[in-house]
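Hi F.,

I've been meaning to write this up properly since the lab meeting, where we talked about keeping a consistent format for the predictions we share between groups. The idea is simple: the sequence comes first, exactly as it goes in, then the structure tokens exactly as they come out, then a line or two of notes. No screenshots and no reformatting. I'm using this chain as the first example so we have something concrete to point to.
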Amino acid sequence: MIAELRTLVAVARFGTFAAAGDRIGLTQAAVSGQMKRLEERLGIKLFERTGRSATLNAAGLRTLDRAKSIIAMFEHIADPVDEASGGELRIGAIASVQSAMLARALVPFRQRFANYHLHIVPGVSLHLLDQIDAGELDLAVLIEPPFGLPKNLIWRPLVREPYVLAVPEQLEGDDWRALLREQPFIRYDRSSFGGRQVDRFLRSHSIVPRESMEVDDIAGMAALVGRGLGVALLPIVEGSPPPVAPVRLVALDEPAFYREIGILQPQESTPAAICLAECLLEAQQ
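Output, unedited:
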């Protein structure tokens, strides 16, 4: 039954039987057979089938939420019940929070869960969200998604990081609009939530920059700016290392824009995940 439930989650995540089969190593026929057996076992229809397409119906969507919870519980079924015996915690984290925010929270966490093995998974916020939704992570620290979240997930805000315009130190002028229009622009990768914020900000001010490159690493972007390769809209990140060459920060007009960093976790979380979330919140107070 667990295999069928995992396949159901994959079908919902990737859209079709064929796409789900490609990702989990099954043929389309095998996926279809598993879904048929699951429907027979549960005694309900999960899909509306029209031609070659199959879409989850209302019963299928309810079953999907429960399937994710069952899979998460199954994955932790053998975890020790006492904190001293240890276990495993899978933590997703965007790169900019790992060296300060997450590291600070792990100190008190270790005092309670000293024998836990921690697997810290890096990634952009969108991918971490997918992994949380698929039950592959216990908790993630990421940028707030610009859309509604599934009902089985909880969002808890941690910190707001304002954006500024980073320019080479020797570049004169504080008119950020003129600097963005005239200088080569190093863009925050648009596939990330932060990059989408930058894109919306530029469009809201009718600014079309002279794009020169697109990067998804804040420290790397600052280093490129410091080398005189362009300007960039960057969030002010706590604990980030100084750029390898001089950078000057130009404030934006109020209201400035921010990215909100927070915790995303399933409603049905393990005691270790709940503890780490509390440590993260306390570390920001």
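Notes:
The domain at 160-258 is CATH 3.40.190.10 (D-Maltodextrin-Binding Protein; domain 2).
The chain has a mean pLDDT of 87.

If this format works for you, I'll send the rest the same way.

G.
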